[in-house]
Structures are given as C-alpha cells and as structure tokens.
Request: fold
Amino acid sequence: MLQEDENSKNIFSNSNYFSRLLINSFYLLIISLFFSFLTGCSSTTQTKNTAIVSTLFSDNDFNSVAIPDTDAIFELPEGMVIDIKKEYARSAGITGEKQAANKWLAEYIGAQDGGFEFRDHYTRMARVTAQERAGNCMSLVVLSTAVADALNIPVKFQDIDVEPVWDRRGGFYLVNGHVNMKLLHHDQPNTYSMRGSEILVDFLPERSVRAYRIKQISRQTLAGMYFNNVAAEALVRNEYDLAYALAKRAIELDPFYVNSINTLAVIYRHKGMDELAEQAYRHVLQLDAKNITTLYNLAIILGEQDRLEEWKQVHKVLELARINNPFYYFDMAQQAYFEKQYQEALVWYKRAVDRADYRHEFYFGLSRAYWATGDERRAKKNMEKALDLSIDETSQHRYKGKLQAMMRH
Reply:
C-alpha cells in the first residue's frame, strides 16, 4: 500500500508508509480487508460496488499500456511444465510408488531450505520466477500455484495479518504484508500420503505465523493483490501509465481490496489530479472508515487546500497512528543528529529500532550518533549490524568503508 513521504522531494511534501502505498509483501503492502466485505455481500451488492468503482477510473488521462492477461501470471512455458511432470513421475523410483504430489511440490520449491531466494519488492510472473528462483512472498505463491496447476494439486491461499514491515523507497513509505498458500492432498494413482494433509509453502516456518490472524482468499483476490503489487512497484519508478493500468486491473479483479484503490489515488496525486484522488480516498473510507493509510493521504490533500476543519478531524486519528511508524522516529533522529543534538538523536534512533529492528539505516544512524558521543564500541557494534542487515551493494560498500575506518581509529 502506498503512502506519500512527507519529507520526500517529489511533488508531494509531507506524508508516510506507503503514502503508504501498501504493497503486498511487495507483496508490497498487503493489509487485510474486513472479513465482512469478503463474505457478507450478495451478488447484487458485488455488482453494484463494481459499477460504482468503475467511476473512479480516468482512462483518458493516461496512455494505453499493454499488461499481461490475468491468467498469464500463473502460466509456465510448456516445456517447463513437461519437465516438471517428468520429474515428479521419476520420484516413484524403482518401487513405482510416487510421493504425494503436494509434498513433492513443497520440496521442489524448497522455500524454507534455501531453494528459493527471498527478494523483497520483487513481484514477478511465474515464468520469470521459475527461471530466477527468487522473489518476494507473492512471487513464491504465484510460482507454486503455477506448478500446482501443472500437477492438478488443489491449493488454498492465505493472507497473513503479520506485523507490518516498513520500508521507504522513491518518496514513499512501503508496508510489506504477507501471503502464503497451502498445497492440499489430492488422490493420484500410485501415491502415498496421509489423507487430508496440507503442506504450507512459505519462506517462514508454520509455527512463526500461527499466532497471526489468517484469512483465506480467492485466486481472483490473489491476482488483484499481484497487480496491486506491480502497480506500486511501477509507481515507485514513476511509470505512471503502467501503474494506472495495473492498479485498474487490480481493482476490477477485487473492488473490495482497498489497497488497490489507495494505489490508484496515489497515482492521481502524482499526476496532479487531486479531485479524482480525493474521490478514490472517500470511496475507500466508505468501505473502511478507519483505514489509516487512506486517512493519511487524504489529510495531505485537505491540508494543501486549507480545509482545516476537515483536516483537524482526520489529524486526530492520525496522531494516534503516527507513533507506530518507525520512520517518524528515524526522521526525528536525523533532524537531531544534523543539529548536533547527539544524545537526543540516540533516543530517537533507539525508538525507531524498537519498532523496526530490521532497518539497516536505523543502526547506521545509531552508529554515527554513538561515534559522535565518543562511544566507539557501540558505534562499531551498530555499524556491524547495519552492514549485516543491508542487502544492496551501495549500502554494503558504504558501511564496510565506515567500519574499516572505525577499526583503524
């Protein structure tokens, strides 16, 4: 899900997590819908909502861009499908008794055993993911679904309401959610398995997600989440026409998945189409009146238009949510550091780490602040932590250089 960054230098000053462009564990932000919106609506209501949501689109303001068919995201090359079937057939060995297809597939993917590299903010179709054996949780689910289709294995998709994982890219705050899937048992000739067994496909062990609320979703909703993910990724790259086409497809697939509508609104904002953006935000709030991401983004519009009474009402809700955003504390720490208020900076950096201990830049900030106060031991320790958590070469090179300089001191 997307949220505009308040401190970014693009056309929107002042905003946060994801724009919040929440993108599925880009996926990028997968934030769960209220369960009632998925199960409590009749077909008449669904049709009515689809008709209403279509009024949010503005095709004439964007260049037409070709995007993949929905089914294409789950397709594998024909030759690969044949090879997979042959490989599974060979699993029978000399006994002729094949392993249960769902168990074989889970081992074939090997997500928990290093056979699939986790790569955040990297959502790709099955054919690409199969070749690269890398991607985020959405890519993993899409690839596993494609192979399951080839072997006629029934599946179950799950949206996991995990604690949000924060990131910031291209002037947006991104909140990563999580999806996974289960491979169900399916009777096949010459196989052995426990009837009714379900095999989890996930980067994370099953015990680590048991404590979270799990919501089963349809294949169509999953496809909508996929398109929202890649729309968010395109938006971060400033590819507005592509982002619009992808977000529109996501909304058409599931008009009740509010993150896709929020993404559409953020696209409008970055095109200077504030009236349409506000219309989309208001539509989300009709579905989810307390959607923090949308309230935050709406507040930006209200503030810029000096609609202060409306802004105040929204801001009351947002102030309560602000304290959960680790980048709020990080930005406060940065300000204190550059004002040479190093002890104060340490307090803010530590609060940021308390809320997101996976962000390398938070530890880098701590390291610099400790170094400025003369605490070389903690400075080196936190620089090592920053280096350990960093994944891009630029950050790693920077941290290595800083750490080497510290060691020589």
